[in-house]
Each structure stands twice: as C-alpha cells, then as structure tokens.
Design brief:
This protein is of the alpha/beta class. It is built from twelve helices and eight strands. It binds 2-phosphoglycolic acid.
Length: about 250
C-alpha cells in the first residue's frame, strides 16, 4: 500500500522564533488529535537555517523534516549553495525538487532537476518531485504533454529501486498561491495519467506503490474531497501550512 502524505512547504516564510513556534504547535496538535492521524506521514519543509531547530522540537516518529532545495553540484566553490550531502548530514530525510517557483524564478531546467534528483538519491534523501502545467498550457490543452515531458526528462529515467524514494507532487501552477484549486476531477485526471506513465515505464506494482500528492491552494475546506480521489495520496501544502490549525485540520481530513 502506498503512503498517505501531507507535507508543508513553508517557502521563504517564518523567522527562527516563529518557525519553532509553528513546528511545536503542529506537533502538539497532532499529539492531541482525536482523529486517526497515525497512518498519515507528515512532513515539514522549513527554510534552510531553521531545519535543525524544527527537527529538534518535533516528534521524529510522527513528523519528518526536509529541505526545500539543494544545489545541482556535489560540493566546492559555489558560494551560497547548499549541497545534498550537507542536508543529509543534518539528519534530514526529504527534499523538494522541481517546484514551479524554482523552475520559473531560478531557471531550473529538467536537466538541472535531474542532476539534483541524482545527488539527493546518492545521499539517501527521499525526493518530493513536483510537476505541473501553467495556465496557458492548460487552456491550450497541452497539459498532458507538459507533465509527460517534465517527468520523462527527470524521474522516469531512474531505476525502479531509485523510484522507491520518489514521491510525486502534481501542482498546477495556476493553482499555487492563487486560491484557485483544481477540482477533484481535474486533479484525479492528472494523477491517474501520471500513474499510468509509471505503469508504462516500470510496471503496475511500482505505479501502485508511488505516492502522488496534489498541491495548489489545498486547504481544510477542500482537502477531504481531493484526498478521497483514488489516485490522490495526500497534499503538498503552501499557504495553509503556515497556520498550525489549518495544517493539522488538513491532516485530520484524511
Ligand atoms: P499553496 O502552495 O498551497 O500556497 O497554493 C502549494 C505549493 O506551492 O507547494
């Protein structure tokens, strides 16, 4: 059975103090929850400088901590960059790669993303790999092709053993931070398409084992309906992950 996962991508938000507060509140609310949250894997992705402090205040058995980015080079003279090896050495287990904000604002191509995925896996990090189409690509009916290319040039080149360490997140760019969510039917259509790509490239058993998360204005009011779709295995949450109450409600809605 594939894992149910709810991940919070804090992006470039919080300070050291507010990051610790947010993580502690999420931890407490989860511990006190009356709902069955034990079968949901919860992941937090704070900014780099706070990763260690956040990991310190959460129950590691219930909450995994990850990094929002890594460099596409292993080490050396790359001022300001953070390597996969550095992240792994802090005890962190997860990494987000391919987020549309990295693709759009930092020019991360599929080639760069494939390098990052290789480095992450070589350092035993599990990867949340994001894909998703822009509004104009959806309106032009090109979204299947866009997603197929994003995946074919990156994670679909991995071996089936490496794929055990990949979580996919479908995040339509037009839904990220816009308040406009994909309908459960729109999201399910793409999730099923992605699972089918995995079946074609690998096999049905592998396709059935990979968790595919939805991201894009996911919040307490729409999470339940999204998560009830057969091929949606959880969410990658941005804005709503910055409020402990909302984030835990999303987890509880599973
Ligand atoms: P959002 O962001 O929930 O604020 O739309 C999701 C994401 O970018 O991962």
């Amino acid at each position: 059975m594939r894992k149910k996962i709810v991940a919070g991508n804090w992006k470039m938000n919080t300070t050291l103090e507010s990051a610790i507060l947010l993580a502690s509140e999420i931890d407490t609310r989860l511990a006190d929850s009356k709902k069955n949250v034990d079968d949901v894997t919860v992941l937090l992705f704070p900014p780099f400088p706070f990763i260690h402090s956040v990991a310190d205040v959460v129950n590691a058995e219930k909450i995994g901590v990850g990094s929002q980015n890594i460099a596409n080079q292993p080490k050396g003279a790359f001022t300001g960059e953070v390597s996969a090896e550095m992240i792994a050495s802090t005890g962190v287990g997860y990494i987000i790669i391919g987020h549309s904000e990295r693709r759009a604002y930092y020019g991360e191509t599929n080639e760069i993303l494939a390098q990052k995925v290789d480095l992450a896996l070589a350092n035993n990090l599990d990867v949340v790999f994001c894909c998703g189409e822009k509004l104009e690509e959806r309106e032009a009916g090109q979204y299947f092709d866009v997603i197929k290319t994003q995946l074919s040039e990156t994670i679909l080149k991995l071996s089936s053993d490496q794929m055990q360490h990949i979580i996919i997140a479908y995040e339509p760019v037009w839904a990220i931070g816009t308040g406009k969510t994909a309908t459960p039917e729109q999201a399910q259509e793409i999730h099923a398409f992605i699972r089918n790509l995995l079946s074609e490239k690998f096999d049905d058993a592998l396709a059935d084992s990979v968790s595919i998360l939805y991201g894009g204005s996911c919040k307490p009011s729409n999470a339940k309906e999204l998560f009830s779709q057969p091929d949606i295995d959880g969410g990658l949450i941005g804005g709503a992950a910055l409020k402990a109450e909302d984030f835990v409600q999303i987890i509880e809605s599973y």
